[in-house]
Amino acid sequence: MNGMKISFYCILGALLMVACSPSAVDNGPIRMNQLGFAPDQEKTATILVSSAETAPCWVVIKEDCETIWSGYASETVLNPVSGKPCQIVDFSTVTRPGSYVLQVCESIDSTRVISNQPFSICERPYRELTRKALRAFYYQRASMDIVEPYAEGYERKAGHPDDQVIVHASAATKERPEGTVISCPGGWYDAGDYNKYIVNSGYTMGVWLMAYEMNKSYFDTLQLNIPESGSPMPDMLAEAMYNIHWMLTMQDLDGGVYHKLTEPDFEGFIRPDECKKPRYVVMKTTAAALDFAATMALAARVYAPYDSAFCVQAREAALRAYQWAKAHPAVYYDQPKMNEEFQPAITTGAYDDFDVTDEFYWAATELHLLTSSKEFAKETIICLQNLTANSQYTSAVWGNVAELAMLEVMMHSGCYQGYPEQFKKALLNHLQPYLDEAETVSVHRSPYGNREDEFFWGCNSEGCCWRGVECLYAYRLTGDERYRKNAERCLNYILGQNSTGYCYVTGFGTHPTSHPHHRLSYSHPKGTHPGFLAGGPNRMRQDAETDGVKYPKDVTADESYLDEQPSYASNEVTINWNVTLFALTAGLDAMTK
Ligand code: G3I
Ligand code: 9MR
Fold first, then answer.
1. What are the residues whose beta carbons fall under 8 Å from the beta carbon of 51, sequence distance 6 or more?
2. Residue 14 contacts by C-beta under 8 Å, 6 or more apart in sequence?
3. Ligand 1 center from residue 458 Cα (angstroms)
4. Ligand 1: which residue has its CA nearest to atom 38?
5. Could you count the other beta carbons within 10 Å of the beta carbon of residue 137?
């Protein structure tokens, strides 16, 4: 089947309401990937049933109203978090590309269909999802008009020129005293809010550029329809450069880096061009300097084939930021303490981090890979010795980037002796319990969503997507298919095989997140922008009772999610979550033919 026809099926499968299905998709008891599968991918669905005693359901798969597969679901198992009874049906033997409907029947003799779910099988099932997850960053661009043909229906006027940014008292120096006006245009809005934060930008750029290095040929040909499309630089790198250029403006004259650019308080849910509040650069911190240094060193390596002048600038900026951090190793962002001393008080996001050893590891490693200098080799080895001694393997998040350093060492093993193997062993040990769980207990069959403590702010990214990306690194390092299968299972979870039945990516699936905590979506006449990953169920429910956020009484951890705009603790969207989404979807897509 040629590529055109296959992609036709992908699109058709995602949208088709099959004539023979007795009712529209009802988001009933079927929980499965609502987007589609690659032909050789494991294919399962979870079916919610009424009791632990319910006999295995009879499941039928139809194509154009013809039954092409049928079989029993499993015996009933209990969801390990909610205790709810479920069954699992495995239809992996269906491999031919096409558009299908999975139907759950009461019994083999009954023609009564309890529920149905359309799905498709095709090569590269996640290419459009990857493209939209990347294009979400174009929509997040500050300081520029979003225009057709690039806007694809979501055009808007520029907001936040950020060319009159005020130096906050917390960031004042002799050369730039409080009230100095500087220009820091561009970059991406962080999330549902309109502020820009260096720490989160740095983590996001790290995952972004490492994903590029992992799948160069895939990204080099991925067209995003952004204003820079058609230039010699791959679109994926051109989009990142828009944010990197902003980051460069956040470096002070002494090499230090401002922690964030923000209004004093979160803006209302209005359009960017309506926002007129003064914006400030706030406090220089060690974490900001180190995340900045790592980003610029990594960028200076990755962009070498495309922009040599930028690479010289980025290298210099990285070295100056690192030296500032060495001279100021413990300047932490403590917003309440800062507000006791400086005015105006700042109440927006903190991205506070009181342990910057991991940022030193990442920055030293990136500078070593860039410069191959003995100075950084020595510093890196000290870092790596500390990392090796550190028994607790911690997955990378915005506040702990040690794993990014370890993954860089593993992926550039020729530059190191011994450490790549040690870190690979640590990564595989870290993943093993999750793989075991996915094979035994979980109704989601994903190495995620099996334990109550996995449901927290941003867990769809920090737990699920990133665990899938870790599995992709493990697969790259070992060739063991179990890791690829579990990366696929993580994505199945995000796309619908989960306790709420949502496809957590806006604009995708038959039951998508549709009301994210996102000022750009809320204030746009066309509403929710596509390609954004929602934070996901959060058992802490920090937004409960504020701003009309009401969770169901006795809601379980895995269902603590509200597809409602006010719910910032479960339904916001952010740049650091979307980067893990496309790192996962691109990594999987790049493996199919
Ligand atoms: O990681 C722990 C987990 O081990 C633990 O089980 C769980 C429950 O205690 O907590 C987890 O930590 C949570 C952390 O997010 C995970 O990254 C913290 O409770 C939670 O407070 C923290 O929330 C952060 C949130 O700001 C509030 O500070 C999010 O990480 C962070 O993504 C979010 O960032 C905001 C920006 O400040 C402003 N822009 C929007 C953005 C997204 O909401
Ligand atoms: O919109 C803000 C979101 O970006 C942040 O992640 C969140 C937590 O810091 O705060 C949101 O702003 C809310 C504020 O915290 C409380 N009043 C309502 C604001 C909008 O929901």
1. 76, 85
2. 34, 35, 36, 118, 120, 508, 509, 510
3. 7
4. 349
5. 25
Residue 27's pLDDT is: 65
Question: DSSP strand E in 238-306: where?
Answer: 258-262, 280-284
Is it the case that residue 5 has pLDDT exceeding 60? no
Least confident of 54-58, 151-155, 307-311: 54-58
Residue 206 Cα to ligand 2 midpoint, Å, equals 26
What burial letters (b/e) apply to 273-288, b meaning 16+ CB within 10 Å? eebeeebbbbbbbbbb
- Going by CA atoms, what residue is nearest to atom 27 of ligand 1? 349
* One-letter amino acid for residue 118 of the chain: P
- Distance CA(468)–CA(455), nearest Å, equals 16
Minimum-distance ligand 1 atom for the alpha carbon of 349: 37
426 CB-near residues (< 8 Å, 6+ apart): 393, 406
Say whether pTM exceeds 0.85. Answer: yes
- Give the E-state strand segments of 387-523 in sequence order: none
Domains and CATH numbers, the chain: 2-121 (2.60.40.10)
Confirm or reject: Cβ of 349 under 6 Å from ligand 2.
yes
Closest CA to 117 of 41, 14, 264, 199: 14
Q: What is the pLDDT of residues 263-284, one digit of tens each?
A: 999 999 999 999 999 999 999 9
Cis peptide before 161 (omega within 30 of 0): no
User: CA angle, 496 as apex, 492 and 499 as ends, to 5°?
Assistant: 110
Q: Is 213 a known active-site residue?
A: no
Q: Going by DSSP bridges, is the β-strand pair 44-48/181-182 parallel, antiparallel, or unpaired?
A: unpaired
Taking the C-alpha atoms of residue 338 and residue 151, their distance in angstroms, rounded to an integer, is 39
Ligand 2 touching residue 547 (CB < 6 A):
yes
Q: Nearest bound ligand to CA 351?
A: 1
Q: Is the Cβ atom of 568 under 6 angstroms away from ligand 2?
A: yes
Residue 354 confidence (pLDDT) above 90: yes
Active site residue 252: no
Q: Measure the CA–CA gap between 479 and 475, rounded to whole angstroms.
A: 5
Q: For 383-396, what is the mean pLDDT?
A: 82
For residue range 537-562, what is the model confidence (pLDDT) as tens digits? 999 999 997 777 999 999 999 999 99
Work out the percent of the chain whose per-residue pLDDT is above 70. 95
Of 368, 444, 515, 517, which residue is the catalytic one? 517
Catalytic entry in 162, 190, 193, 543? 193
Continuous H helices in 303-415: 308-327, 335-341, 357-371, 374-389, 402-411
**Pairing state between β 85-90 and 98-105:** unpaired
Structure tokens at 578: 């979307």
Asked if omega into 552 is within 30° of 0 (cis), the reply is: no
Residues ≥6 apart with Cβ < 8 Å to 512: 34, 502, 503, 504, 505, 506
Which residue is it, tokens 């006999």? 55
Residue 213 CA to ligand 1 center (angstroms) comes to 28
Residue 264: both structure tokens together: 């004093």
Place of tokens 């993580």: 490
Residues 547, 309: Cα–Cα separation, whole Å: 48
Active-site annotation holds for 480: no
Pocket of ligand 1 contains residue 543 by CB under 6 Å: no
pLDDT score recorded for residue 440: 86
Half-sphere exposure of 314 (CA within 13 A, CB side): 27
